[in-house]
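call fold target=Monosaccharide ABC transporter membrane protein, CUT2 family
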Amino acid sequence: MSNPPSGAASFVKTSVKQPYIWAIAALVLLLIINLIKDPSYLGISVNAVTGDLSGNLIDILRASAPIMMIAVGMTLVIATRGIDLSVGSVMAVSGAVSMEFMHDAGDGSLGSALMAIALALGISAFLGLINGVLVSIVGLQPFITTLIMMLAGRGLAKVITSGQNTSASNEFFRWIANGTVLGFPVVFVIGAVIVALVALLVRRSALGLMIESIGINPKAARMAGIRPVGLLIFVYILSAVLAGVAGIFSTASVMTVEVAKTGFSSEMDAILAVVIGGTSLAGGKFSLTGSVIGALLIATLDKTIVFLAIPSSATPAFKAIVIVAICLLQSQRVRALFSQRRARTSTPRKEAVSA
């Protein structure tokens, strides 16, 4: 009779089944690779005057905040069998609105910074509302709807800035991206708080289950009394608002919005972070924890590419290899093939012992 697994063995067995465990393994592997090149890579120093923390890990946390925002919003959209390709453009619109307002105000006050943030998030929510209405009420495909918004949003940002890169001067706004709280980057602290609030909202209420039910079986969800229209509008508005937050984070770091570059290809990073985190593109069950880990992995991967001095021409290939490897390790079919192979190799050994 076989003994029941110990607590540690049971924990390991349960952890391996988590869809994002391979993302954690890849994250650790990237850090080990960087450590091999530079043993002091994970070192964190403290500024004796300000008390701020500095180091590569702090830089990774700071860079992961915008990705984390759009990944969390994208997770909920994908859970409903949708997609949001407009998050990068919404980031550009958010940055354009905030920079233009503060540039015109020119006083550098806290009130101007708060008003700029409110306007940026307000127009982001409006763009998300348009996406939600077109998907849930008009019945357009999410891919087509958000693709149109991706093009229209980038054009709107150009109209707001008159096609020029807009800069502003406001220390309160700059503090959001470059300031620190207890030594940690403000931008990451704000991002972590927002993620925690979203997690509480969808996991401590029936909202998360209703979102998952729409993605698993929309017809059964309707028969159970769940109205998808309001939920779809909500997730697209939330995705756009979080993209607006990411746009504020991105522009606040340099206090300049570049319409052609702000948020460029961010939608791809968001989708990759969601997939790496274990959420299926087919909709249904989702993992906000996995998406956050995916965002950290992508930020670490970008940092590693720069740190290893990989040529820009080879960067997409390097990034694709890492991500494909993680997705293969997450695949149940691939794991089943490995399990079958292990079973075949272990059977002859058992027969040999019994003989």
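return ok
The beta strands are 45-46, 53-54, 166-167, 180-181, 184-185, 256-257. The chain is about 75% helix and 5% strand.
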